[in-house]
Design goal:
two-stranded parallel sheet, binds 2-acetamido-2-deoxy-beta-D-glucopyranose, alpha/beta, 2 domains, elongated
Length: 257
């Protein structure tokens, strides 16, 4: 057997194994693959449709050139910080009809300048961080969520004044103000950010007044009591016969002797 024969018999299986590995790596290369449950179509940019895919979270292997992303009708509960960061061309994002309760403060970090449409309707969002949409240029649909109308939400909507339509769809499921439940947020005139402050100020004032009254009454009582005591003491001293003192001293002397 020559050296060449030996080399061939030893390395042929290795070659085959290597070849199949390369093929497998090519087949499962993430860039060329669409996330599980989604379809990817090139049209006006890359359209990735993952509607009705029983997804419980946002897929992490989304193609970086995605421009339209449909994630509606899934069971996503949370949008983590920076989850779309790599999608530099994302223009439209549909997250409607999910079970989203929480959005990270930086959920839309990285797509602020490209995103034009964001659909968050038909979810379970009651509150968001006040800066979550701050830098977004997108038209945001926030309708059909159980919003809690408070100072934070007022700040969020104030930061979106250019997007009047977003606010008009926000109905208060619960509210800081008693009679606002079920009403559109826009009909609330009150400044919700000053309400709780005023209440605490008032409570503080009442408490301070209470303490002040207690301290004053105590001082008055103390002074009066002392005056009475002093008067009584003085009267007692006056009433003492002056001779008794000398007699006492005499008694002391006799005991010593
Ligand atoms: C998002 O998807 C829902 C359900 O398919 C659809 O009704 C809605 O119009 C979509 N939103 C946008 C902004 O296209």
């Amino acid at each position: 057997m020559t050296v060449l024969d030996l080399w061939l018999t030893r390395s042929l299986p290795m070659c085959l194994l290597l070849q199949s590995l390369v093929l497998m790596a090519l087949c499962f290369h993430p860039a060329s693959m669409c996330p599980k449950g989604c379809t990817c179509l090139h049209g006006n940019g890359l359209n990735v449709t993952c509607s009705n895919a029983h997804l419980k979270e946002i897929p992490l292997d989304l193609p970086p050139d995605t421009s339209l992303l449909r994630l509606d009708h899934n069971q996503v509960t949370t949008i983590p910080d920076q989850v779309f960061k790599e999608l530099r061309m994302l223009r439209e994002l549909n997250l409607s009809h999910n079970a989203i309760r929480t959005l990270g403060e930086n959920a839309f970090r990285g797509v602020e300048s490209t995103l034009l449409t964001l659909d968050l309707s038909h979810n379970k969002i009651s509150t968001v961080h006040k800066n979550v949409f701050a830098l977004l240029k997108a038209r945001v649909n926030m309708g059909n969520n159980p919003w809690h109308c408070d100072c934070t939400l007022q700040q969020v909507l104030k930061g979106m004044t250019y997007n009047h339509e977003s606010a008009s769809r926000v109905l208060c499921k619960s509210s800081e103000l008693q009679d606002q439940e079920g009403r559109p947020f826009l009909t609330i005139d009150a400044d919700l950010c000053n309400l709780p402050k005023r209440t605490t100020d008032y409570a503080m004032l009442v408490t301070m007044f209470g303490w002040f009254t207690m301290v004053i009454s105590y001082v008055v009582y103390y002074v009066r009591q002392n005056q009475e005591d002093a008067r009584r003491h003085l009267e007692y001293l006056k009433s003492l016969p002056s001779k008794q003192k000398k007699q006492d001293e005499g008694d002391d002397v006799s005991t010593v002797v």
